[in-house]
Amino acid sequence: MASLLFMLLPHLMILLILIQIPPYLSSNDDNYTSCADTRYDCGKINNIGFPFWGGNRPKQCGHPLLQLNCDPDHDSTTYITIKNMRYRVLQAYPENQTMKIARVDYFEGLCPSKAVNTSLDFELFDYGPGNKNLTLFYHCNGLSNSIPGFLNCFSNRTSNEYFYARPEALGAPPSSVVCRTSVFIPLLLQLDVEVELSWNNIEGAIQNGFLVKWIGSVAECFKCMNSGGACGYDWNSNQPTCYCKDESGYSYLDDGHIKIFDAFATSSTQDDHVLPNSGM
Fold first, then answer.
1. pLDDT digits (tens, 9 = 90+) for 158-198
2. What is the reported pTM?
3. Are 232 and 243 a contacting pair, CB within 8 Å?
């Protein structure tokens, strides 16, 4: 009996070790393959990698708040939600971490049911270059047809509800106009002169969108890629993670979690603000 236990002891020890290995360590190769080889592709939005996930790209490959959603029933349109506001993703440029987005609520008219300011999560995004500012004022007193940007809330002109559009190029509104609500919307198209402040032009400028730049974990991802890894995200620790084909390059914390990018000594020789064409 003792000899039998002695013979089985090595096998029992190996079994115990395997049982205690956390599942995310035993699937390093799977995570590496998933995040290195899988890009988000939907309609005109293609080759999108870290820090995004969605579609065929698994959630461990991107930040929890950076999910891209594809709607195949509406021209394969991509959507993203930022601070509880839904946007259409019109274009994406992985090589310089920018995308053009437009507010979904203003595709249904210029007077949405809720007047909400445009707001970004500045830990993840910043406004891109070339944006202009438009302010839409609602529930105003002192408006008249002689004021540029004075428009009916509905294009058929059957409503008595009005709004007032004020591009930044026109400066502050007249002192005679007092409004209860205002909404800030960035634009890429400039609305400068009085003749441009028509319903169709304002609606078209808003739906043309504005640029945002994603800023989260870009420099860290360079270090991961230069070490031969694939960028991902540990949702449990809420930290970016580097997946490798094997355990080389990893440094582990005492609690068993993967230590993130500062474990890699290799630093990028490129500009931290310009990504490779691979889309990460």
1. 455 667 787 776 766 777 777 888 899 999 977 655 446 77
2. 0.75
3. yes
Contact 63, 51 (CB under 8 A): yes
Domain boundaries, the chain: 22-28+40-97+215-280, 102-213
Among 103, 128, 122, residue whose Cα is nearest residue 212: 128
